[in-house]
Specification:
Low-confidence stretches: 228-233
Mean pLDDT: 92
Shape: globular
Largest sheet: 3 strands, parallel
Number of strands: 11
Strand order of the largest sheet: 1-2-3
Radius of gyration: 18 Å
């Protein structure tokens, strides 16, 4: 369970050109990560699993810390569609399964939305099913580990065409969900920009907490032109 989860790129939704363009990055990530932790790779099917194993072996990636799950996926963005591991007040590990709808129904998402449930079943971990409560992508929020959460309104409560996550949800309702299920006491909102990129400006694209009172971000004059290529084909 501990380690990094990767959904491997494939050609079944976005084609072979896309797969070939990004796949080396996943090979490089696996090679770097396996040296210090487990790497859990999600392959689209058994044929893909065997192909990935061959690729990693060709690139001289040690396989001791690499294992596989075979689940169909739509794309690679497990930070957004995958499980959120949390602890309850007794220290038990649980999985939160939030809704995922392809960044506001921009892309197919049925397979990726099911990933958290599949992982729960395979690991035998209790799941908190939030699919009917709220769509929430992992990359849309950042927490400092000390009670503060930051998010952009554009990627959580935006109601513009081709960007709707949560129809009619209010800012207060979103805050209540974050406070309940992330255990935070303060939510800081940035406006963000709907349509700037496929994620509608996820906070993780330009800001990360280093610790509970320090963050790293971009210079102000860079932000307006910042256009990450998450999922853009």
């Amino acid at each position: 369970m501990k380690g990094t989860w990767l959904q491997w790129p494939h050609h079944y939704q976005h084609g072979m050109t896309y797969r070939k363009r990004v796949e080396q990055t996943w090979i490089d990530m696996t090679k770097a990560l396996q040296a210090g932790e487990k790497v859990h790779i999600i392959a689209y099917n058994t044929e893909e699993k065997n192909r990935i194993i061959s690729l990693l072996e060709e690139n001289k990636v040690p396989m001791k810390n690499v294992d596989f799950k075979v689940y169909p996926t739509d794309d690679v963005w497990i930070r957004d569609n995958g499980p959120i591991f949390v602890k309850d007040n007794k220290g038990n590990i649980l999985i939160e399964d939030w809704g995922f709808n392809g960044w506001g129904e921009k892309f197919d998402s049925e397979n990726c939305d099911a990933i958290s449930q599949k992982i729960c079943v395979d690991l035998g971990i209790k799941v908190i099913n939030l699919n009917e409560e709220m769509v929430n992508e992992g990359g849309s929020v950042e927490t400092d580990g000390n009670g503060v959460l930051i998010a952009c309104k554009s990627s959580v409560i935006s109601q513009k065409k081709r960007a709707t996550r949560n129809k009619d949800i209010t800012q207060e309702e979103a805050e209540e969900m974050f406070e309940t299920y992330y255990g935070v006491s303060k939510v800081i909102w940035l406006d963000g920009v709907t349509g700037l990129d496929v994620t509608d400006m996820h906070i993780d694209g330009f800001m990360k907490f280093i610790n509970h009172n320090t963050m790293i971000t971009m210079k102000e004059d860079v932000l307006p032109s910042f256009k990450p290529s998450y999922g853009v084909i």
